[in-house]
Design brief:
The complex is a heterodimer of chains A (81) and B (132). In chain A, 81% of the residues lie in helices and 0% in strands. Chain A has three helices and no strands. By secondary structure, chain A is mainly alpha-helical. Chain A has one domain (3-74). Chain B has a single domain (2-66, 79-131), classed as Helix Hairpins (Orthogonal Bundle). Helix content of chain B is 69%, strand content 0%. Chain B contains five helices and no strands. Chain B is elongated. The chains are: A mainly alpha (81), B mainly alpha (132).
Chain lengths: 81, 132
């Protein structure tokens, strides 16, 4: 594990997570959640968990984002918080 | 005192995991929109996975794939200290798949609720339920 990269990616993970919860648009929240999942994938390949990184890149960043976007298009984009 | 500070700084992965967990818990409790609540649930799940993967990390170790595992001369001693512990990784592989399944069910329920009440905000749904 290379700690400067680890710390930088951890900061980006926290920023992406807070951003996904703060943004006033559900489609933006879905895309920011995809960015969060991809940062998590990078974090796990840094920590040496390559199998978890593969699964997160395909399932977390791929399928989850598609699910969110599909759900947002079937409902509404507006949110109050 | 310096001992304490160095222990706290050396375990920064665990502090970030607690931070992410609290962000997810806050979103699940305090957010009003159902999709935001589901995003918070997913952040909570990935925080727990981050904790488990952080347990397996070793200093000076490589990824858990055997070196020189193929070929004619495979008879050699394997030192466990040279490899990162793969057991938490395997457990968390299952957790990721279960997380996507719960996400699908939660979003399907949110779509059904939207079709019934025409809104995703929790307080508007509750007022409509009380009016009936």
């Amino acid at each position: 594990m290379i700690w400067p990269i680890d710390l930088a990616i951890l900061t980006l993970v926290v920023i992406a997570g807070i951003g996904a919860l703060m943004v006033k648009d559900l489609l933006g929240a879905a895309i920011l959640f995809g960015a969060y999942s991809f940062m998590m994938c990078l974090l796990w390949s840094i920590m040496g968990a390559v199998d978890v990184a593969f699964t997160e890149a395909s399932v977390g960043a791929g399928v989850s984002t598609v699910f969110f976007v599909a759900a947002v298009f079937r409902t509404s984009r507006r949110t109050k918080d | 005192m310096t001992d304490l500070i160095s222990t706290v700084v050396a375990k920064y992965n665990y502090w970030i995991y607690i931070t992410l967990m609290m962000i997810g818990l806050y979103a699940m409790i305090a957010k009003n929109n159902l999709v935001k609540k589901i995003v918070g649930m997913n952040i909570f799940q990935t925080a727990i996975i981050l904790f488990y993967v952080s347990i397996g990390v070793k200093k000076g170790a490589t990824i858990p794939i055997l070196e020189h595992g193929h070929g004619p001369d495979v008879h050699h001693v394997v030192h466990a200290v040279d490899y990162i512990n793969p057991l938490p990784h395997v457990l968390m592989l299952t957790a990721i798949v279960v997380g996507v399944a719960t996400l699908g069910v939660a979003l399907a329920l949110a779509i059904r609720i939207y079709n019934n009440y025409n809104t995703l905000e929790e307080n508007e749904i509750l007022t409509q339920v009380r009016e009936k």
